[in-house]
Specification:
CATH superfamily: Homocysteine-binding-like domain
Largest sheet: 8 strands, parallel
Number of helices: 15
Helix content: 40-55%
Number of strands: 8
CATH architecture: Alpha-Beta Barrel
Low-confidence stretches: none
Mean pLDDT: 92
Radius of gyration: 20 Å
Number of domains: 1
Oligomer: single chain
Distance between the termini: 42 Å
CATH topology: TIM Barrel
Shape: globular
Order of helices and strands: HEHHHHEHHHEHEHEHEHEHEHH
Length: 378
């Protein structure tokens, strides 16, 4: 999924390590928003709590979201993500549709077909994606014009609240709550809205379930083809990033890092990488394996360590800690794109950007083994 012309971000990746932003959810929490704030006037009558639906803030508190984008850009981010991690009709239904299980029913393909067909959810998902992309575009261009350095908008495509790989019913392992085509349809709507809003690239991220990700990638390809983008050389680069467990497997579909790369290699992504999941100290061996196998650029934006409710950000690692780990990754030839996921504020990204300034990007065949890495850290 690459253009016939070299994308400007590709040129950046050839010359230096690019910086991606940090955690939108973590940073939103520092603003002290309440249920009243996220509802604003528009959603004041919603029957479910909405505060955990952070994507809605793009509609009800756009100034705050713009301020967060500004702070990440000024911290040194080359790539900022749209606030659309859960902006599909399927994920938004968790906040706006009554759960049939509360009345003895179940979620199944018939239930999710109603979700896919629901005009309110379709329109809401489109609006969140388009508005968020426009907000990112405005700030990316504004900071680029001020600094003279191009910035890029990544349309964030999250993993969904349903799984195509596993059954939630232990007595019926073949049962799936949703179909591949339903997931693909929801993702296609998201992709079109992100493109309409001005995204420079598409980021399929925090992949727990490889089959969900496959549906997203098929949706992207079909949107490019059906909307005439391919014929006009307007394919957007695609970045792919998985979340892995302690054994290095995707958490629901349990693909190893090598198997995961083999499953997505045919897409010819701009980058493939790991995010969220483990803290950076535990991520090294899996990142090393991926860097050794992949012909694409390697991205890495881990959580700021493990969850810690006593920490101001909810995670253990401070900015200096994240900067040190990612600088080590760069020293050992592992990364082309670096940043942070959960627990990483603009201050974390600023420290990472400063630590990686002047560090050369990964070149295939130059990674260092986990043993050498461990020795270098004492």
């Amino acid at each position: 999924m690459t253009t016939t012309r070299q994308h400007p971000l590709q040129k950046v990746l050839e010359s230096r390590i690019a910086i991606i932003d940090g955690a939108m959810g973590t940073t939103i929490r520092t603003y002290g928003m309440t249920e009243v704030d996220i509802r604003s006037g528009r959603f004041k009558d919603s029957k479910k709590d909405l505060l955990n639906n952070g994507d809605l803030f793009s509609l009800t508190q756009p100034k705050m979201i713009g301020d967060i984008h500004r702070r990440f850009l000024e911290a040194g981010a080359d790539i900022i993500e749209t606030n659309t991690f859960g902006a599909t009709s399927i994920s938004q239904s968790e906040f706006f549709v009554e759960d049939p299980r509360e009345h003895g029913g179940r979620k199944d393909p018939a239930f999710y077909q109603k979700i896919i067909d629901d005009p309110f959810l379709k329109d809401l998902a489109w609006e969140i994606n388009e508005q968020s992309a426009q907000q990112c575009r405005e700030w990316a261009d504004r900071v680029a014009n001020t600094t003279g350095r191009q910035r890029f908008v990544a349309g964030a495509i999250g993993p969904l609240t349903v799984s195509l790989s596993n059954s939630p019913d232990p007595d019926d392992p073949g049962f799936r709550v949703v179909t591949f085509d339903q997931v693909k349809t929801a993702y296609a709507e998201q992709v079109r809205a992100l493109i309409a809003g001005g995204a420079d690239l598409l980021l399929v991220e925090t992949i727990f379930d490889s089959l969900n990700a496959k549906a997203a990638l098929v949706a992207i390809r079909e949107v490019f083809d059906q909307d005439g983008l391919t014929a006009n050389n307007r394919d957007l680069p695609v970045m792919i990033s998985a979340a892995v467990g302690r054994g290095g497997e995707t958490m629901i579909s349990a693909q190893t890092v090598e198997a995961f790369w083999n499953a997505v290699e045919h897409i010819h992504p701009l980058s493939v990488g790991l995010n969220c999941s483990l803290g950076p100290d535990l991520m090294y061996p899996f990142l090393e394996e991926l860097a050794a196998k992949s012909s694409a650029a390697i991205s890495c934006y881990p959580n700021a360590g493990l969850p810690n409710p006593l920490s101001p950000t909810g995670f253990d690692l401070e900015p200096a800690d994240m900067a040190r780990y990612l600088s080590d990754f760069a020293d050992h030839g592992l990364i082309n794109i670096a940043g942070g996921c959960c627990g990483n504020t603009p201050e974390h990204i600023a420290a990472i950007a400063k630590a990686l300034e002047g560090q050369p990007p990964r070149r295939p065949g130059t990674t260092v083994t986990e043993e050498s890495y461990a020795e270098s850290r004492g």
